Amino acid sequence: MGEVDGPGRPLELGRPLAHSYILRLVAEFQGFTRDLHDLSAEHIVSVAAPPPELNALLTAAITRGRAIDSGNATMTALRMDFGRLGVRNLEGKLGTINAAWARPGGKDPGKFDALVSLRNALAHGNQRQVDEYQRQVDEYRRQGHLDTVSWARNQLPVLNRLSRALDTILWEHLRTRTGVPPW
């Protein structure tokens, strides 16, 4: 790619880079949600003040079987996992904190879903699935969700807004329930 002359980079040459960027963005967000869930679980356990030798055991019990450990950090997975910590109506809370997440009219839920769906279409590589996922990627392109670095970079604010809102929701939820600021 570095030896291509002329302005810009031909789209087909840049696609592998774009695909890896999209995969990385979604993976980093998923890692953030795991860290946030871990911190929340640790806070709950520390406020409960069990004998110190039970801290790790209880934290592991709270985090065992999370959807975000075995699948993507979709809104369904986030709702399930944070619901286990007592957070209810996650999407409603997101919409209250940030109008871009409010339904109807908020554009972020659709952009987030498209980003995660495109990640899935790009990530699965067994040959039987490649044709089906290529069809899905082609459909995303027709809908304007391009598998380019520029398109992916434009989705970064969606993930940033979602990350900040989740942090706020969990902080407030834990502070209200435990009486102690969590972080």
Polypeptide structure, described:
The chain is mainly alpha-helical and 183 residues long. Helix content is 71%, strand content 0%. The protein has helices at residues 11-48, 55-63, 67-70, 75-83, 90-97, 108-123, 127-142, 149-178. Helix 5 (90-97) packs across helix 8. The longest helix has 38 residues, at 11-48. It is elongated. It starts with 10 loop residues before the first helix and ends in a 5-residue tail after the last helix. The mean pLDDT is 86.
| Beta strand count | 0
What is the CA-CA span between the terminal residues? 44 Å
Instruction: Work out the helix count.
Output: 8
Envelope shape: elongated
Q: Provide the succession of SSEs.
A: HHHHHHHH
**What's the main sheet like?**
none
Question: pLDDT below 50 for ≥5 consecutive residues: which ranges?
Answer: none
Class by alpha and beta content? mainly alpha
Name some characteristics of this structure.
183 residues; mainly alpha; 8 helices; elongated
What does this entry show, briefly?
Helix content is about 70%, strand content about 0%. With about 180 residues, it is mostly helical.
